[in-house]
Amino acid sequence: MDYEPVIGLEVHCQLKTKTKIFCSDPYEFGAPANTLAGPVTLGLPGCLPVLNEKVLEMAIMAGLALNCKIAKITKFDRKHYFYPDLPKGYQISQYDQPYAIDGYIEIKKLNQEAVKVRIKRIHMEEDAGKLLHSYHSNETVSFVDLNRAGAPLLEIVTEPDLRTSEDAWLFLQTLRSIIRSLGISDANMEEGSLRCDANVSVHKPNEPLGTRVEIKNLNSFKAVRNAIDYEIERQISILESGGSVIQSTVLWDADKKQTRLMRTKEDAEDYRYFPDPDLPVFEISPAFVESIRKTMPELPNQKRERYIRDYNLPEYDAIVLTRDTDIANYFEEAIQYSNDPKKTSNWVKDEILGVLNKKDISINNFPCTPKRLGNLIKLLNQGKITQRIAKQVFEHIYEEDLDPEQIIEKYDYKPVDYNQLEAVIEKVFQSFPEQVQQILTGKDKVKGFLVGQIMKETRGQAPPEEVHNLIEKKLSSLKKG
Ligand code: ADP
Ligand code: MG
Predict the structure, then answer these.
(1) How many percent of the chain have pLDDT more than 90?
(2) Three-class SS of residue 249?
């Protein structure tokens, strides 16, 4: 009997507030080291934490978007451990009364029913600083940067509902797009504003769940997939050879593509959690929750349904376009100009996403702006350019950062007019009498050859429909004659 993998994720998401969770120190990624660390961040004596209201608002918004119950009473606890990036010797987190519990996210694959992945809890906590290990004057030295200490985090914990690395990947993608659509975080794995730990175990179906191993240090989507797959294989081979899995925390090494033991698993008791006496237990009123619910933007799954309903797009298109809020916004702006949702969708998913990927740039920095794409499609639909030319114009737009009209002018792209086209067809028929004869004797396929020649003669600027009509006209006159 085969082993079944079981996966649960713990995701940290850094909230995009102006100031930290418990004080007015600003936080931004990439600032010079230790310039954003005032007395509260440093844990100096006599300083007291005060909860940033914006953090609570964003946290509740995330809780609602993930279909959680929002607690009426919640509190903060101290989680104790020593590390040089943690000045107070404890992290302010939430232990037994998280502000949100019992939610779910629906993950959707093409032509399949959406699957619910349960969210066990979400809690608010402060981030730690960062250690930088380096080599300096023949010595190994470590630096500490406390800028990030006290930055606001949400920790989102799933139930062990996932079964494959692919589903874990899809869950994270879906979560990221929800968070981004709420505008509460950049949710960027590379910059650390989205971090994921994966808990992995294997068991035989119908038997109790196996012992889990927690994988840390997953800082890209690829790492999440590779590390989970590696760990599944590792555990299966341990069990197959008669051994047993030890509950532990491991680190993923993306270069070596393997995990390395960090520690055998600590228990919650080890952290000596207790309620933080500096922060009172507090109430979240239902009215406050409702006021936040009213300001919630459209979520990706709602957007997906709307694209199918209002723009008549196939499900596949709607999934691709709504995976990323920036892409969705681009698409919606472009159709303001093109007035053609399906064609715009095709261009975005078949052309633009590929170019962005190849050039490794974001859609917001793409020289072919939504307006330019929309106008390009409009020109195409008006018959001012052909599909083939449109692709060339598109390439020039992003290479040269010009409008479609400017490119058409510059390269003299214009559709061949009717009279010109008749002359070209006449010429092609003259030049290839053999092929014409074959068509007349029923070899319809050869028509494609003639079309190709006509396109060559016209630099691809002949409208295909017109070419087709004129060929038929010419052929029938030959048949009669
Ligand atoms: P604890 O309370 O010991 O921290 P939790 O039950 O909160 O553990 O689970 C922590 C994470 O581990 C969650 O993401 C959960 O889904 C996952 N998890 C729990 N049990 C397993 C298991 N047997 N296999 C894989 N993941 C698991
Ligand atoms: Mg935590």
Answers:
(1) 75
(2) strand
Kindly list the domain boundaries of the chain, sorted by start residue.
4-290, 298-410, 418-480
Cα distances (angstroms) measured from residue 460 to each of 339, 350, 464, 471: 25, 20, 9, 16
Beta bridge partners of 204: none
CB 201 less than 6 A from any atom of ligand 1: yes
Residue 384: Cβ within 10 Å count: 18
In this prediction, residue 265 carries a pLDDT of 66
**H helix or E strand, kind and range, residue 152:** strand 152-158
Q: Which atom of ligand 1 lies at the shortest distance from residue 8's CA?
A: 16
Q: Where are the alpha helices (DSSP H) in 383-463?
A: 387-400, 404-410, 418-431, 433-440, 447-457
The dihedral over CA atoms of 343, 344, 346, 347, expressed in degrees to the nearest 10, equals 120
Judge contact between 177 and 323, C-beta under 8 A: yes
* Closest atom of ligand 1 relative to the 211 alpha carbon: 23
Rounded CA-CA distance 126/93 in Å is: 7
* Collapsed DSSP state (helix, strand, coil) of residue 297: coil
Q: Which element (helix H / strand E) includes 4?
A: strand 4-14
pLDDT band at residue 282, thresholds of 50, 70 and 90?
Answer: very high
- Nearest CA owner, ligand 1 atom 4: 268
* Nearest ligand atom owner, CA of 266: 1
Q: Two tokens at 145?
A: 């940067």
Distance CA 157, CA 74 (A): 17
* Structure confidence by residue, pLDDT tens digits, 364-413: 999 999 999 999 999 999 988 888 889 999 999 999 999 999 999 998 88
Task: Give pTM, 2 decimals.
Answer: 0.84
Find the 95 Cα to ligand 2 centroid distance in Å. Answer: 9
Structure tokens at 120: 């066990």
Whether the CB of 159 sits within 6 Å of ligand 1: yes
Strands 77-80 and 258-264: unpaired
Task: Tell me the C-alpha to C-alpha distance, in Å, between residue 159 and each of 97, 99, 162.
Answer: 17, 17, 8
Alpha-carbon span 7 to 202, nearest angstrom: 9
For residue 13, give the ligand nearest its CA: 2
- Asked whether the beta carbons of 450 and 432 are under 8 A apart, the reply is yes
Atom of ligand 1 nearest to the CA of 157: 14
Q: What digits encode the pLDDT tens for the residues 423-445?
A: 899 999 999 999 999 999 888 88
Determine whether domain 418-480 maps to CATH 3.40.50.2300: no
